[in-house]
Amino acid sequence: MIRLRGSSLPGEIEALSGQRVFDCNQCAKCTAGCPMSFAMDIQPNQMIRLVQLGQADRLLRSKAIWLCSSCETCAARCPMSVSVAEVVDALRQLSRERGMADRSTGAPQFHQAFLDSVARHGRAHELEAIGVYKAKTRRFFDDIGLGIRMFRQGKLSLLPHRIQDRDVIRRIIRQSSGSSKT
Ligand code: SF4
Ligand code: SF4
């Protein structure tokens, strides 16, 4: 078992996510509406149950937390106003901090490349994020056809568009995602 930072896993997740995980009554409406549940090794309602039970190892090493698309359908459907999406964000943060992220999906690397790009420019520079992701995962030729089509259609710009108050964005990212890298 891993050691938790300070309090229990449920307390830590509630503090990070602002969600009241013990309000969940396991109705599974979140799972029924989740567009990514077919690919998840732990279903959205099961994630909340495992948080309640303090099962940090299973959760922080799972693929499911990296397959969530943050679409918020679960939050919209929940009769108890629990947002699984917010809980997943907190789980990702702990997973990265503790070096437990499942990198086999490539999602943690993409997540970090995207956040680094936003921190650098104030908004995402897609071409840069994709390049860093490809270098980290060595998946150089996956989706190359799609990338070329997007570039031809002007959806990937060569140069980043920078905003003025980039320090504010960097502070927000540091506070919300921790400083550790995947
Ligand atoms: S919809 Fe809400 S109450 Fe129902 S299982 Fe999901 S998180 Fe729990
Ligand atoms: S936010 Fe994540 S867990 Fe919630 S419905 Fe969307 S993909 Fe599923």
How would you portray this structure in words?
The chain has 182 residues and is mostly helical. The chain has 2 domains: 9-102, Orthogonal Bundle (Fumarate Reductase Iron-sulfur Protein, Chain B, domain 2), CATH 1.10.1060.10; 106-174, no CATH class. It has 11 helices and no strands. It has helices at 9-17, 29-33, 44-52, 56-60, 64-67, 73-77, 84-97, 107-121, 126-137, 144-152, 166-177. Helix 1 crosses helix 7, helix 8 (107-121) runs antiparallel to helix 9 (126-137) and helix 8 (107-121) packs antiparallel against helix 11 (166-177). The longest helix is centred in the middle third of the chain and has 15 residues, at 107-121. It starts with 8 loop residues before the first helix and ends in a 5-residue tail after the last helix. It binds iron/sulfur cluster (2 copies). The site of one iron/sulfur cluster (SF4) has 14 residues, from helix 6 and helix 7.
Number of domains: 2
Small-molecule components bound: iron/sulfur cluster
Total helix count? 11
Structural class: mainly alpha
Amino- and carboxy-terminal Cα gap: 21 Å
Summarize the main sheet. Answer: none
CATH topology (level 3) name of the largest domain: Fumarate Reductase Iron-sulfur Protein, Chain B, domain 2
State Rg: 17 Å
Quickly name the level 1 CATH class of the largest domain. Answer: Mainly Alpha
Could you state the CATH homologous superfamily of the largest domain?
A: Alpha-helical ferredoxin
Strand content: under 5%
Secondary structure tally: strands? 0
- Name the poorly predicted regions: 1-6
Which range best describes the helical content: under 10%, 10-25%, 25-40%, 40-55%, 55-70% or over 70%? 40-55%
Write the H/E string, N to C: HHHHHHHHHHH
The CATH architecture of the largest domain is Orthogonal Bundle
How would you sum up the global shape? globular
